[in-house]
From TrEMBL:
Entries under InterPro entries matching the protein: Amidohydro-rel, HutI, Metal-dep_hydrolase_composite, Metal_Hydrolase
Localisation per UniProt entry: Cytoplasm
Chief site of localization: cytoplasm
Binding sites annotated in the UniProt record for Fe(3+): H84, H86, H254, D328
Keywords: Cytoplasm, Histidine metabolism, Hydrolase, Iron, Metal-binding, Zinc
EC number per UniProt: 3.5.2.7
Occurrences of domain Amidohydrolase-related (ranges): 75-416
Residues given in the record as 4-imidazolone-5-propanoate binding sites: R93, Y156, H189, E257, S333
PANTHER family assigned: IMIDAZOLONEPROPIONASE (PTHR42752), IMIDAZOLONEPROPIONASE-RELATED (PTHR42752:SF1)
Single GO molecular function: imidazolonepropionase activity
Binding site for N-formimidoyl-L-glutamate: Y156, N330, G332
Name of this chain's protein: Imidazolonepropionase
Amino acid sequence: MKPIFIRNASQLVTLSGSSDSPRTGKQMGELNIIENGSVWVENGLIAMVGTHEEVLQAYESRLHEARIVDATGKLVTPGLVDPHTHLVHSGTRENEFNMRLRGATYMEIMNNGGGIHASTRATQQATHEQLFEESFERLQRFLLHGVTTVEAKSGYGLTLEHEIKQLEVAHELSAKHPIDLVHTFMGAHAVPRQYKENPDEFVDIVINEMIPEIAKRKLAEFNDVFCERGVFTPEQTRRILEAGKEYGLIPKIHADEIEPYEGAELSASIGAISADHLLRASEKGISMMAEKGVIAVLLPGTAFFLMADSADGRRMIDAGVPVALSTDCNPGSSPTVSLPFIMNLGCLKMGMSPAEVLTAATINAAHAINRGHEVGSLEKGKKADITIFDVPNYMVLQYKYGVNHVDSVIKAGKLVVDGGKLVWNNTHIHN
Ligand code: NIG
Ligand code: FE
């Protein structure tokens, strides 16, 4: 692989110095920008970051070896990290979208056998190959939006066989696509209809049959539960997450999304790495998260698409909670791959600053999936995951909202998007 010399960015956002822990409070607004910055990339890693003069001087004698990527007038950032998706699924639910536009609620649709149940039926019926194809296409679009690492949850299988299928598809995608996937088991995403009268029976299956087998096959690092009134109670959530811990699975929670349910409190008391959604999190829950350093993964695209009030990102940052942002990419509550648009919503709907949303979608997102040492900032020795935007500074990325500004993407030292087009294989999708 040829070295890559990214030259002369108008702004090079390094976000350096936070590989050990996520940024909190005022630090979330500090990007450690180098004006007229350049990067030397070699063997898949970042070899040097500095001003154009510094990098040029260090590597002048080797310029002829390198592929030169001119970033004059452009913004260079760490590759974006999406720490919460339901990437692997089959089918779409635009019919439910239409019902919601006419007044039906998300939970009503789910309680009538639609929602997660509808996507579960479609995903159970799909073959491994079909799921791979559908999800591969989504990953291509993630890459075009500047995203280089994606967390992917199971949870549309809801039987051991189909949960394994979903996770195996995710592993194959990670091996075959440039984007790195991080794997989460979410067998407790919904109570299957046949256990409706006896949900604890299903909780026992998750604990006694699914978790041990998923762990044995090393299919996941994290364990997530949809803790919500009418889905899994805080007590059931605790049992499932404690059982996962015994097998080395790190807890995450879909918390306080639709109703306040003490999910934030639970995330802190159980030692979760993140609590996600948090639209209705309590003051007490937020301060407990701040104290324990639980990362708030906020999903303003879901609030937007469900026509609900967003989580109070501003309040959480001010309370000292490390905040990350994610698409929640899924067929029901957020069918998008545009993490840049989610960042726009972070500013416009949650009172976050343009600097804070960039921190939230890079280094803090990396920490939310235990990848803070590998990705999320541009520093010597880290993986060369780099996104180049065709804007002169990071504020314009938020100001000119709803537009895909991605010009190029370098993933593990390889140019995979160039001039807004995928260049790593022969697919014809482009911006
Ligand atoms: O994060 N809330 C639960 N799970 C997903 C939605 C899944 C679906 O509707 O298919 C979420 O919003
Ligand atoms: Fe989700």
